[in-house]
Amino acid sequence: MKTFDEALHYLLSKVKQTQKTETISITEALGRVLAEPIVSPVNVPPHDNSMMDGYALHSFDLEHNSVFKVSQRIPAGTTPKPLVTGTAARIFTGAPIPQGANLVIMQEETEQISDNEIKVNASKTNSGQNIRVTGEDIAEKATILKPGHKLRPQDLGLITSIGFDKVTVFKPLTIATFTTGDELLEPGQATAPGKIYNANRYVLNGLVPQLGFSLIDLGRVEDTIESTIEAMKQAAKVADVVITTGGVSVGEEDHIKPAIEQLGSLDMWKVKMKPGKPLAYGDIEGTPFIGLPGNPVSAFATFNLFARPYLLKMQGATNLKAKPIWLDADFEWLKAGFRREFARARLVNKNQKSVIEIYPNQGSGVLTSTVWADGFVVIPEDTQIHKGDKVAFYPFNPVDE
Ligand SMILES: Nc1nc2c(c(=O)[nH]1)N[C@H]1C(S)=C(S)[C@@H](COP(=O)(O)OP(=O)(O)OC[C@H]3O[C@@H](n4cnc5c(N)ncnc54)[C@H](O)[C@@H]3O)O[C@H]1N2
Ligand code: MOO
Predict the structure, then answer these.
(1) Do the Cβ atoms of 263 and 236 come closer than 8 Å?
(2) Which residue numbers delimit the MoaB/Mog domain (predicted)?
(3) Is residue 232 located within the same domain as residue 339?
């Protein structure tokens, strides 16, 4: 049996990163992975500018005077004249600082004493106050984003702040999915004895596009060797990776193993984790294949824990590792097991403290646990947990994804 860390490490070592890139409009770039560094040709801000609506003047004059003539008016978007010595300039937020001024007094700290005169009432002033300096956000020639970065709304803002309207990103991977099992009915079909509804198809087909990949959904494949081989071939032809659920444990009803062994290569693993013990990895005529277990919670967990980082790495992303949040357990886990448990858990606030609760039924077929929860809590191998122990919580949707 492999440990969880061994399985993940091996899987990630097998990834061949995509080389296919495209240059696209910034309006299409949300969620895409950068293929090239972004180097700024400009300073941001491009000029020293005011943080406040108020008056620009020089600190030297303030040492001698509190009443100033207003010698010019500088709205944002205009170019100021140099400041006449001993005077103030009316200035607005974002407007360039005139040459000869070195601070801005906000208008609430001044009073208008005649049509073109103000009195400064500020108790404390410093040179440079209320001025945003050239390049303080981005310096010219700085690398603002590196390849492998998955673009979020704030990244698009940063890129457009240097004037770029296009970015070079990796083309999205295409993932083909199918589910196996003759017991499966599609939603909308009438129930029948011995049958269950195909839940995994819809979980998988939500998880794949949520990560920004294109999906080819081949639906349910009949449990025969011929149908499985046919589906595999078709999937491998059109996709960068093929992902299935079901048919990876030891039963002879499972045709995934013999099908792939005819078409490529396959490793069947038993991983020391729960849910998600069986996992298959191989290739179909050269296309990577990941076989997730059939139990719905196991399929959900192994997608998140194995397929997600595998696919993100293949897509060129560098931020693969989900970061845990360490919090106090608000539960007891007394049956220490030899497999690492990824218990479905949620964060709750109690008396201004965040703690972790777990769903009472942690069965691999209890999909309700994944809906109730908002993440996994890790119960390490051979470990009991008592209330108040620190535990590692992994949200299902990491914020930086
Ligand atoms: N003798 C052994 N039996 C099993 C072992 C083992 O080590 N030795 N491992 C168990 C574990 S752990 C798991 S997980 C399952 C995984 O089995 P498979 O990947 O072969 O999956 P199936 O047998 O096809 O299905 C398991 C279970 O999940 C239900 N299922 C399957 N597909 C779907 C779907 N698309 N939607 C909803 N539910 C689905 C299926 O009906 C079964 O109940 O094997 C254990 N057995
Ligand atoms: O992966 Mo199985 O779900 O551990 O029960």
Answers:
(1) yes
(2) 176-313
(3) no
Give the pLDDT of residue 400.
Answer: 56
Evaluate whether residue 319 is within a structural domain: no
pLDDT of residue 51: 97
The answer to whether residue 303 is domain-embedded is: yes
Kindly report, residue by residue over 11-31, the tens digit of the pLDDT. Answer: 999 999 999 999 999 999 999
C-alpha 301 to ligand 2 mean position (Å): 10
Within 10 angstroms of residue 228's Cβ, the number of other Cβ atoms is 25
Rg (CA), the chain: 30
> Tell me, what's the pLDDT at 181?
84
The residues of the chain scoring below 50 in pLDDT are none
Q: Closest-lying ligand to the alpha carbon of 252?
A: 1
Give the whole-angstrom CA distance, residue 254 versus residue 247: 4
Pocket of ligand 2 (CB under 6 A): 274-277, 293, 295, 298, 364
Residues paired with residue 328 on neighbouring β-strands, in sequence order: 355, 390
- Give the residue, out of 295, 339, 368, with the most ligand 1 atoms within 8 A of its beta carbon, to mutate for a pocket test: 295
Do 97 and 234 fall within a single domain? no
Q: Which of 302, 301, 306, 347 is nearest to 324 (CA)?
A: 347
For 281-320, how does the pLDDT look when each residue is reduced to its tens digit (9 = 90+)? 999 999 999 999 999 999 999 999 999 999 999 999 998 8
The CATH number of whichever domain residue 189 belongs to comes to: 3.40.980.10
Q: Is 272 in the pocket of ligand 1 (CB under 6 A)?
A: no
- Ligand 2: which atom is nearest the Cα of residue 274? 4
Nearest ligand to the CA atom of 249: 1
Would you say the CB of residue 366 lies under 6 angstroms from ligand 1?
no
Instruction: Output the CA 294–ligand 1 centroid distance in Å.
Output: 4
Q: What is the model's pLDDT at position 252?
A: 65
Does the predicted model carry a pTM greater than 0.90?
Answer: yes
DSSP, residue by residue, 357-376: EE-S---TT-THHHHH-SEE
Domain final residue, candidates 170, 196, 222:
170
* Per-residue pLDDT, 80: 98
Model ipTM value? 0.96
